[in-house]
Amino acid sequence: MSEKIKVTSEKIKDIFIKIADVLIENKNYLTELDAAIGDADHGINMARGFKKVKEKIEDDSFKNNSDLVKTVAMTLISTVGGASGPLYGTAFLNISKIIPDSDFDIDSFIKIGETVIEGIQKLGKAQRGEKTMLDTIIPAVNALRESKVKGLSLERALEECKKAAEEGMKATIPLLATKGRASYLGERSKGHQDPGATSSYLIIKVIVDELISEME
Amino acid sequence: MVSILIVSHSKEIAAGTKKLAEQMKQGDVEILAVGGTKEGEIGTDPDAIYSSLKKINKEDGVIVLADLGSAVMNINMIIDRFDEDIKKKIILADAPIVEGAVFATVEASVGEKLSNIVSSIESPNVIKKKQ
């Protein structure tokens, strides 16, 4: 029997509120990263989108996890304003279609990761190594798969996922951007950490930390 | 007659491109333009793009001209929301926004069909500047 944790929509709501707080806190940091290689709006856009998410979900109750995640997705799509809107929006919309209603095991997290990657790739047409959010997300999902093969505990698997996300984010520094606004900079895009990879890491970090605190 | 939708990160670019294209109108081509975020800042507003696409005459098809990243992604995401028979009549052209809109307007206004307009504005001649 594989290990399971119970995650209800009240918990997921807390997670999204924490994600919003972290992104709002990191608004200037993300914008500075984006100023180096893009159009200096990633932090502003993410903070705007998640501020709205927070307003929208805080005082509402949702009939299930899917309903809540779908609300988050639609809010991001309509309020972010930059490319991260449709990308994160589609990612969460895909999650809303498959998210379990209460019990999560390692396979649920792998499935969630896979549907996120699929949604982002369909829209953004990017591969790993192109200095995008996928450079954080793909290794994070791979770490979950590897943890499953190794038979690690769910807690360890989530820790590995976070670690791989962080390494993936940092590994974007030397990369040449070939997608998104940074690609217009060509060689000058090297030497900077990708803002999208950074916001993806911040989101994964909150999710993992919150889930682990729930398990203790 | 084919309709034209212009989507830019900037409200002014969208409106200006529409104005420029309309000068070339020989007939009754419908041209809609959306630009900027809900707050009027640089960016794109998927809700505005969706309502323009819903509203525009799609009978003979729609050519969409878009500028950068999120405009392109939002369009692709929104086209996906329409039914299959309508979806195939909305084409995001691989063409520069200003030149593409002007050329498409000329061709649409003389009654050229969707696929012909797309192939002509996607040709390198559209951006040729050197004689």
Automatic annotation (TrEMBL), chain B:
Location of the PTS EIIA type-4 domain: 1-131
UniProt KW Transferase keyword: yes
Record GO terms (molecular function): phosphoenolpyruvate-glycerone phosphotransferase activity
One Gene Ontology term from the biological process aspect of the record: phosphoenolpyruvate-dependent sugar phosphotransferase system
Reaction catalysis annotation: dihydroxyacetone + phosphoenolpyruvate = dihydroxyacetone phosphate + pyruvate
Record EC number: 2.7.1.121
The keyword Repressor appears for this protein: no
Root EC class: transferase
A cellular component annotation (GO) from this entry: membrane
Keywords recorded for this protein, A-Z: Transferase
InterPro entries: DhaM, DhaM_N, PTS_EIIA_man-typ, PTS_EIIA_man-typ_sf
Cross-referenced Pfam families: EIIA-man
Subunit note: Homodimer. The dihydroxyacetone kinase complex is composed of a homodimer of DhaM, a homodimer of DhaK and the subunit DhaL.
PANTHER family documented for this protein: PEP-DEPENDENT DIHYDROXYACETONE KINASE, PHOSPHORYL DONOR SUBUNIT DHAM
Cited function: Component of the dihydroxyacetone kinase complex, which is responsible for the phosphoenolpyruvate (PEP)-dependent phosphorylation of dihydroxyacetone. DhaM serves as the phosphoryl donor. Is phosphorylated by phosphoenolpyruvate in an EI- and HPr-dependent reaction, and a phosphorelay system on histidine residues finally leads to phosphoryl transfer to DhaL and dihydroxyacetone.
Protein name: phosphoenolpyruvate--glycerone phosphotransferase
